[in-house]
Amino acid sequence: MRNDLPHDVLRDEVSADVDDDVDIIEARPVTHFVTTDLTVPGCPIERDQLLRTMASLALGTVPELPAAPVCRECVTVENACRVVQFGEVCCGAMTRGGCGARCPSYGVACAGCRGPVEEPHYDANVTMFADRGISRADISARMRNFSAPVWMSRGLERENPHD
Ligand code: SF4
Ligand code: SF4
User: Fold this and answer.
1) How many CB atoms neighbour CB 87 within 10 A?
2) How many CB atoms lie within 10 A of CB 82?
3) Which of 110, 114, 121, 134 has most ligand 1 atoms within 8 Å of CB, for mutation?
4) Pocket-testing residue among 48, 103, 117, 147, ligand 2, by greatest number of atoms within 8 A of Cβ
5) If you measure from the C-alpha of residue 99 to the centroid of ligand 2, how many angstroms do you get, rounded to a whole number?
6) pTM beyond 0.85
7) DSSP states of 29-44 as a string?
8) What's the 43 CA to ligand 1 centre distance in angstroms?
9) Closest ligand 2 atom, residue 98 Cα
10) How many other CB atoms are found less than 10 A from the CB of residue 40?
11) Is residue 75 within 8 Å of residue 67, measured between CB atoms?
12) How many Å lie between the centroid of ligand 1 and the Cα of residue 85?
């Protein structure tokens, strides 16, 4: 979420005690830096998924983590869709489920905190948002947080090339 903040703002507001020599690099997922065997998704992760994962590893089995998008859970609990009924940018269709569609259940669009599904249909989602009259700048702004590195690689930079 910090990638949109200018470095001087970060230094003043967040890292004032940090030595000026420290390089503030772009935030990236841990998998960008090291190879991992397994990732428990979410920011924060879901308690039950952590416990199930640890139990599974202790038993020597491969943990199963949710792979379907947030929309699947959202439809199951019969939430009003933030895109269809409210014309908002909701990342649920591109985001890995497992949170029980927490945010839409409280009337807030999904911001993508659990990271992307295996094949996020970026272009189709952007078209869906734009068809509802949402500006490209607003779409881009809304998607610039948790999953931004993935959305970027899928075309977010195209939506806002002047950044
Ligand atoms: S509110 Fe979001 S998560 Fe729920 S169905 Fe609509 S797009 Fe999917
Ligand atoms: S931002 Fe999306 S993935 Fe994260 S808790 Fe909310 S609904 Fe779930």
Assistant:
1) 12
2) 20
3) 110
4) 103
5) 6
6) no
7) -GGGTS--S----BTT
8) 18
9) 8
10) 17
11) no
12) 10
CA 160 to CA 121: how far, in whole Å?
Answer: 18
Backbone angles phi, psi at 96, to 5 degrees: -65, 130
Q: Tell me, in angstroms, the distance from the centre of ligand 1 to residue 74's CA.
A: 6
| Residue pair 127/154 in contact by the 8 Å Cβ criterion | no
Higher pLDDT: 111 or 155? It is 111
Q: Write out the two tokens for 33.
A: 């830096």
Question: Per-residue pLDDT averaged across 10-15, rounded?
Answer: 72
Find all residues with CB under 8 Å of 146, minimum gap 6, and list them: 1, 43, 111, 112, 113, 114, 115
Per-residue model confidence as pLDDT tens digits over 38-64: 889 888 899 999 999 999 999 999 998
Distance 101 CA to ligand 1 centre (A): 8
Nearest CA to ligand 1 atom 5: 71
Please say whether the dihedral angle defined by the alpha carbons of residues 59, 62, 67 and 72, taken in this order, is positive or negative: negative
